[in-house]
Amino acid sequence: MPKQIARSLTAALLALAASTALTQKAAKLTIDSTKTVHPVSPMLYGLMTEEINHSYEGGLYGQLLGNHTFRGNWDLLSNGNAKAAVEIDKTTGPSSALPTSERLSVKQASPGNEAGISNSGFWGIPAYPHTLYHGELYAKTDLDSPLPLRVQLIGDDQVDTGVVLATTTVTVSPGKWQRYEYTLTTSDLEPSATNHIEFTVATAGTLWMQMVTLFPPTYNNRPNGSRIDLMEKMAAMHPHFLRLPGGNYLEGEKLANWYNWPKTIGPLVDRPGHQSPWNYWSTDGFGLLEFLEWCEDLHVEPLLAVYAGYSLHDVAVKPGKDLEPYVQAALDEVEYVTGDVSTKWGAERARNGHPKPFPLTYIEIGNEDFFDKTPGSYSGRFEQFALALRKKYPQYKLIATAAVQVSKAAEPDVQDDHYYKPPAAMFDWVHHYDDAPRNGMKVFVGEWATRSGTPTPNFGDALGDAAWMTGLERNSDLIVMASYAPLLVNVHGMQWATDLIGYDALKSYGSPSYYAQCLFAEHLGDQVVKSSIDGAGDKFFYSATLSSDIKTLHVKLVNASNHSQPLDLNLLGAKAGVAKMYSLHAGNFQATNSITKPELIMPVESTVQIAAQHTVPAYTIQVIDIPLQ
Ligand code: AHR
Questions:
Q1: Matching CATH number, 3-43+525-627, of 2.60.40.1180, 3.40.50.300, 3.40.30.10, 2.60.40.420
Q2: Residues sharing a CB contact under 8 Å with residue 591, sequence separation 6 or more, in sequence order
């Protein structure tokens, strides 16, 4: 669990007392821990990701400056009587991937009358006390002598308006484009997000700049790494895989914008970036290797989705010759992920700084290809990808994103199903897989969410999600993996309502649903045990699993009703006495956490006496760990 349950137990109990006035009739819950039904899929809970809602740029990607490859001008700055102009120069840049640059033409400047450019990050640049920031930039000047370029992190807080929080100087040499590194160190200050950065000169002349980055410390101190608080939040979810890189982000809006992974690896200056389908530019600073290192840092497997020739608003690539380059790109991508250094792409990965191959079990072919309405298109595309992948890599399991009619040799191992529903519909959907055929093909619920809260799930959504997870666990002989989507949202840059973890430049918070998912995953168990319920209200849900190693029964109880649910318990094979309970509760569906009230709804840990009766209060999720006999 993230930070153990700081909220006052007294307050929680008062809230519970107030909401237990209405009671349903008692239901009989029988759980027989001596009889296992089937194993729980060990990879059941994982994460799904894509560039949406500023998930990376302005989110997980540690880089703090907005528009760092100058897809538009930064703000012009002229102190005192400085005279300057700024524009995009399409004739020069530091690399073929970044052939344009920001040109600052300074007619007049002097100390105290500096000219330059400024950047306010993604809704602010976070300033932390006593912190070392690292940056790089590419620059050139038309001057014959070295040009001092001053870099300043400046506070915009009401108290600290204009205060310089950190400063350094980069000396730009005359001549060709060159790469420069710089550092900024803050001293004592109140953490804040309301800050900007300035790059200024005090001399007339022309300065070109490109690829200007700034990083605070990152998770595991990775260069070009990830934001620490978000990584910690994901680690607390106990995930087993990361589905990457999308979602629609894999497909792009047009064919030209597919996730062309070789353009996302190598030095940042060699990554051209691309238009993401979520209406903003992706620099690809957070590229394929960064995704894989994210997996490594969380100790999870990548679940690699390969582009399958279908983009959102374009005609799909025809199976056959036209599709071959995309199939080859997928084969190369798998080699980049898993090949040893003697392979072409394994060697490339080593050159990029990661000689060790990554683990892989599942490859997904495309995303939501049921949107491709051309008859037979996905079946044809899937067949071609599957045969090529199976020929070279028979060891991997293949996931289809829609029903396919293919030859035996190309049959998918798993189908990816997606569900987005409001709370009431999600409650109705909980038993969807209970009677589904067990005919060999497994299910991956690659995207799911109960959606009503904005920007993050409210408590009604958390109840829907917890209810749904009881169904995932009960059916985990069929459902091998599941991942909520979308995972991340910058609260200033939301594009899709209801996203699991919210943040701004400085802080982040878990939604009630996030905490429900942490609880379920942490207490997953490895066997589903025999159980039955009789007489419960229609908004009551449960799951019963056990962990063989720690000899513990995990009972998950979800009461989404405004009436409390008394239970007559018949627990076979469990020890009577004291058990540990984790509760998540709110007074209604609308209650939620937010960037200003991040910990309103948090799990409360307590002990319960396991007796013949147990009552689940209204609007409550409980996870109870009961020792086995
Ligand atoms: O999760 C948001 C979007 O929903 C995904 O990009 C897409 O796969 C689905 O339609």
A1: 2.60.40.1180
A2: 458, 459, 512, 600, 601
